[in-house]
Amino acid sequence: MRVLITDSYDQMGLEAAKIVAGQIYLKPNSVLGLATGSTPLSMYERLVAVHRTVGLDFSEVTTFNLDEYIGMGPDNPQSYHYFMQKHFFKHINIKPENVHIPNGMAQDVIAEGERYEQLIAAKGGIDLQVLGIGQNAHIGFNEPDVKFAATTHKVELDEETILANSRFFNNVDEVPRYAISMGIKTIMMAERVILLANGRNKARAVYKAVCGDVTPEAPASILQLHRDVVVILDKEAAELLPANVVSI
Ligand code: F6R
After folding, report:
1. What is the pLDDT averaged over residues 126-146?
2. Which catalytic residues are annotated (predicted)?
3. What phi and psi, each to the nearest 5 degrees, are found at residue 230?
């Protein structure tokens, strides 16, 4: 695990965008795993800028998003389908058929999880997975006490996650209770992973991910066992890390 501490949220996004852009330059038909939420917004902005200014080409790129709320269709402004279109896909030249997000409206969620896994495998697996982290150290929607062996599956959101995500809704009661999420195994099978975090409210979770015991109680801690992870932080999110953490 390598840790990169940047000066600001924007700088965090820039460093993440450099890694994603580098991946696409080296392998134009890369398979990217993508996250939603506030954290990766500055990375998406930078990638859109690189696409516009120097023509970073997404025409052969395939993407798989981590998760979607159950019961939300793509036209729902709170859905992760909608989020991705709004903040990223509609601004770049990715082919719609190369964009994949779990179907939150699937009747059979188990079958949907299997379909998603098969699709990832058929594309040759994920080359680079982008992750945010929850205040409870979740990755994707893999909440504490997760099964490390899980693949894409239905999850019940933690109260802490529901509360944290209520900032995107009118009130907490509108936040869905369930989601479909890539599992820890799906994430761990990616060739490379970048984990982004900003803000003091993520400092504890970052500490657990980087320095804590590897335990299902802190799902992100499993990343310590992955061979190629870069953790990109702003100063606030790095606040609790000891000085001897290997940084680049
Ligand atoms: C989003 C996702 C979540 C978020 C995490 C942090 O697709 O899988 O794990 O990355 O909840 O969310 P923000 O960035 O909004 O703080």
Report:
1. 97
2. 67, 136, 138, 143
3. -115, 125
Pocket lining: 183 vs ligand 1, CB cutoff 6 Å: no
* pLDDT tens-digit readout, 110-119: 999 999 999 9
Q: What is the 164 CA–ligand 1 centroid distance (Å)?
A: 10
Looking at CATH, the fold of the domain delimited by 2-245 is given as: Rossmann fold (3.40.50)
Report how far apart, in Å, the C-alpha atoms of 191 and of each of 33, 88, 227 are.
10, 23, 8
Known catalytic residue at 174: no
Ligand 1 atom closest to residue 39's alpha carbon, by position in its atom list: 14
pLDDT at 243: 83
Is residue 100 part of the annotated active site? The answer reads no
> So what's the pLDDT on residue 244?
78
Q: What is the DSSP letter of 139?
A: B
Distance of alpha carbon 72 from alpha carbon 184, whole angstroms: 23
Domain boundaries, the chain: 2-245
- Is 143 labeled as catalytic in the residue annotation? yes
Quick check: 247 pLDDT over 70? Answer: no
